[in-house]
Amino acid sequence: MVASEVRALFAVASRPEIVSLAGGMPAVDALPLDAVASPVADLVTSRGSVALQYGSAQGDPELRARICDVMAMEGITDARPDDVVVTVGSQQALDLLTRVFIDPGDVVLTEGPTYVTAINTFAAYQARIVHVSLDEDGLVPESLRETLARLATEGARVKLLYTVPTFQNPAGITLTAARRAQVLEICRRAGVLVVEDNPYGLLSFTGEPVRAMRADAPDGVVYLGSFSKTLAPGLRVGWALAPPPVAARLVLAAESAILSHSMFTQLAVERYLATQPWPEQIKAFREMYRDRRDAMLTALAETMPAGTTWTRPEGGFFVWLTLPPGVDAKAMLPRAIAARVAYVPGTGFYADGSGRNAMRLSYCYPPPARIQEGVRRLAGVLEAEISLRRTFAHEPVIDVPSQ
Ligand SMILES: Cc1ncc(COP(=O)(O)O)c(C=O)c1O
Hints:
The chain is built from twelve helices and 14 strands. It is an alpha/beta fold. An eight-stranded mixed beta sheet has the order 2-9-8-7-6-3-4-5, with helices on both faces. It has a four-stranded antiparallel beta sheet with strand order 10-11-14-13. Strands 1-12 form a two-stranded parallel sheet. Strand 6, helix 7 (177-190) and strand 7 form a beta-alpha-beta unit. The structure holds pyridoxal-5'-phosphate.
């Protein structure tokens, strides 16, 4: 286990003078606190003895039924509460799933780049992480096919494809509908379970939620969901929807990890969903994040030097920026911090050291004016970096005579 690059950055990036385009923290300030306070107060007075008691490792049945309603918005209409396992954020679902499926040396396929903490989880269980290419339409089916064929000739055991197909972290990219069908078919044939990690699915800037991969492959996909981005991450409530034999194993693994999930936070979420206009709140979040995305894209277009490219997310929190050839985002970071702007260098999102000339920028947390200021500072640092490289590129090579 190693400290993630993102975590090491948080200490510096949280200083008030620095515009942090690094962390992926949801803007919880935009959540009216009364909307949480009143169901919680009601919970304590009306169901306190249940909320403060142990519960089951699978999670509260009423919450699991409401989670099925949430997933129906993404086209998953056949989910049964029995197949849902509530977890401590979707992160714990990923950890439990890895614990159940992975023996040291087993292969997990992931997009390159992929979610940094997923890399750390797979590495902690000694999985071999193999990246599959990603382009502006999402994971590339041809690359998946070729990778599987290559691994088959090596006799590797490929257990899982871990994917964030919708508004990906870190690239902000969404897998097209046509490719979703192809990816599911390739994995079905190869006997590889798909793990669809979907914390951003409801945060679409175009209105309609994107149809989940799980909606079209109930047996081949484990779906991971979360209330961290649509309600609040501090509650730590997420879930897995899995085929029954997998769900049963996840419950056993959860029992040994946490005995039972917090009934208090589960029932708080359940009451919130039952009593508050949560679809309206999600709409408000979508509009706020869309404004922030627009602020970032406009600022990038106005300020970035030639040769820099970036993705244009249709939802979620992140833009992936590719720098002109030869510019190293990790080496540049201390100069960016000195210029009071922070980002996450691309290498953190690969298991194999790729991504040196890329970075993740998040627009979820700072308000639009701060985002614009942050991008302006970043462009200044990048300009300086490019001109420095130019200077050194023209420096004459000095021949030092050997003594
Ligand atoms: C792709 C992805 N998966 C999982 C998580 C973790 O979510 P949770 O708070 O539900 O554990 C995040 C959080 O940033 C994420 O971006």
